[in-house]
Amino acid sequence: RFLNVTGVQTCALPIYFWSKLCSDHNYTTPHIIADGGETRFHSVKNGLSVIKEAKDALVAVHDRVRPFASIATIKEAFDVAEKSGCAIPTIDLVDSIREIKDNSSLAVDRSKYKLVQTPQVFQFEILNKAYIQEFSPLFTDDASVVESIGFTVHLTNGNRENIKITTPFDLVVAEALLS
Fold this sequence. Notes:
It is a single chain. The chain has about 180 residues and is α/β, with parallel strands linked by helices. Helices cover about 35% and strands about 25% of the residues. The chain has six helices and nine strands, in the order βαβαβαβββββααβα. The strands form three sheets. Strands 3, 4, 7, 8 and 9 form a five-stranded mixed beta sheet that branches. Strands 1-2 form a two-stranded parallel ribbon. It has a two-stranded antiparallel sheet with strand order 5-6. Strand 1, helix 1 (about 10-25) and strand 2 (about 30-35) form a beta-alpha-beta unit. The radius of gyration is 18 Å and the shape is globular.
């Protein structure tokens, strides 16, 4: 059983568009609209607060700006989270990276780093417990929130096409992926 909790900004326009999409596409899966928050942390916390019965459920948190998550990426994250409690899709870096120190930079070993994607999948009890704590600006994603209370997050395979669309150039890449 799935429950879709969609976080939207508090103004009525996104709620109207979501309702219209559900109507236009005959979307009948039970869902609840939760208010978005000031940050991702607050939006997820708001979403978790509307879930009433989810003791043994898995929760996936996904950025709406990542429309190209593959079925294999999603399935693997759910499979690993079901067994281990927490799973996040990642991909290897292909570019060289540098660490900035003082007025210089140093080459670092890119094999020691991963790029993190969504959906990030967690057992409900773990994610809900993590979001009881106060916000920290160090929380960049849900995995960082969960790790801060001592849980190990397991890495799964992401897919390179699962880009985050945040700039005009990203839109060009997305259009190319769709064609």
